[in-house]
Amino acid sequence: MASSSSIHARLALVALLSATTFYCIHKYRRLKRLKTLSLSPSTRRGKIFFISETGTSKSLAQRLHKLLESNGIAFDLVDPTSYEPEDLPKETLAIFVASTWDGGKPPKDGEFLVDWLSESAEDFRVGSLLLSGCRFGVFGVGSRAYGEEFNAVAKEMSRRMVGLGGAEMVPLGEGDVDDGELDRMFQEWCDGGYKIIGSHSGVKICRWTKSQLRGRGGCYKHSFYGIESHRCMETTPSLACANKCVFCWRHHTNPVGKSWQWKMDDPKEIVKGALDLHTKMIKQMKGVPGVTPEKLQEGLTPRHCALSLVGEPIMYPEINALVDELHGKRISTFLVTNAQFPEKILMMKPITQLYVSVDAATKESLKAIDRPLFADFWERFIDSLKALQEKQQRTVYQALSVKSNGEYEVACEHAHSCCVLLGRTDKFKVDGKWFTWIDYEKFHDLVASGEPFTSRDYMAETPSWAVYGAEEGGFDPEQLRYKKERHHHPKPQAVVA
Ligand SMILES: Cc1cc2nc3c(=O)[nH]c(=O)nc-3n(C[C@H](O)[C@H](O)[C@H](O)COP(=O)(O)O)c2cc1C
């Protein structure tokens, strides 16, 4: 007969095994559910979560919610106490405004959500792809007075979201309630770095502008054409677009539409607003290491305008008046269109350089990459390429590539180091090698035939490329060209590792 101590030991073992089994089943079910959810992300509305104790973060979240709503962008404002964190893998866009309290802890209303993120990130069975369908941004509300714990919750959330595969679409914002700059910082964070002009335009000081102000390198326009990036203004008269491209840096927080449906601002006001804001941003570079007074002074009189910031600039019905306004100020114009408005390309007045974005080589891949609103998007794309051919001006086919876990590879490495195909002149990189797309006529023929094409068919050695000067007064508004254009003949560079 078994002794009472061995019965106790057996009972304890059975209890332990049942508890372990129960725990494993529970975890397995949770895991299974999470995996299923993560494999079938739905196209849900974006969410703005507020994690707040005394209401500061909540009111910022409410402000952002209102701003998006007034731009026709529907988001849900979410109180974490009424949200099931296990639904996070279904989200495609999540914005968190979160404060930090005593000991670096979240407010009690956000504890469950924050703990869920930390636990999931540490659970090796959950995996690092759980939130791979979710783009997110975190803005922290805290106080620097708390030293190491400053914005600890926001930092933790951002780290955990990345650990679970989320794509951080805007760098972590760190608001300090005590420095008097919280509102301004939040606004800048919401703008994603660009400033809004009137009701539908934007301007941004691009990183190359900053770089060249500091005496460093410029963008490809500098390498190819001699255009000084610190004298270039990046702006758009339309934040709206007819595509929802997978690589879009706005991550679908900008309005979309097939036609202009918004109140229209005056083109003169847009140019004035863009120049005012641009010069204000340039002035803020004063005192930054490397920025000399001369460069700063030059930066205050932009000579070039890149109409390519975000959205689709030619959707703006007064685009011709807008470019006239810029040319009248001796500012050259570089406009990039997304190949969905061929009729607008045809009615555009000549500008300095007109680009059409070539994001894919087949109907299927264009649909997958650009996610166009138009049903006849492919016909529009082909017609846009043809329309470019008819323009009596300098044109560019700009081939973008999309880096998406290796799923899409279009023409070059990734979306924002775009490759510019200037007629038969430019070069681009694929698989670490440089190529040039030279056969302009052949490309036109192929495009005109409507056959799918691959960019690889159009790569060859670099014979030459044009460089045109951007000296003071060098741009001729009559000719829409630079007076001192010249041609540059570098050695062929077919393969550069
Ligand atoms: C008792 C107390 C503890 C705090 N601890 C922190 C902290 O550890 N880290 C931090 O960045 N901010 C800390 N703060 C600052 C709060 O985050 C700040 O007051 C914020 O405005 C609260 O935002 P909320 O109203 O959205 O909760 C603390 C504030 C108080 C009153």
UniProtKB/TrEMBL annotation:
This is tRNA 4-demethylwyosine synthase (AdoMet-dependent). Pathway: tRNA modification; wybutosine-tRNA(Phe) biosynthesis. The lineage of its organism: Eukaryota, Viridiplantae, Streptophyta, Embryophyta, Tracheophyta. It comes from Brassica cretica (Mustard). Belongs to the TYW1 family. Its EC number is 4.1.3.44. Probable component of the wybutosine biosynthesis pathway. Wybutosine is a hyper modified guanosine with a tricyclic base found at the 3'-position adjacent to the anticodon of eukaryotic phenylalanine tRNA. Catalyzes the condensation of N-methylguanine with 2 carbon atoms from pyruvate to form the tricyclic 4-demethylwyosine, an intermediate in wybutosine biosynthesis. PROSITE patterns: FLAVODOXIN_LIKE (PS50902). It is an enzyme of class 4 (lyase).
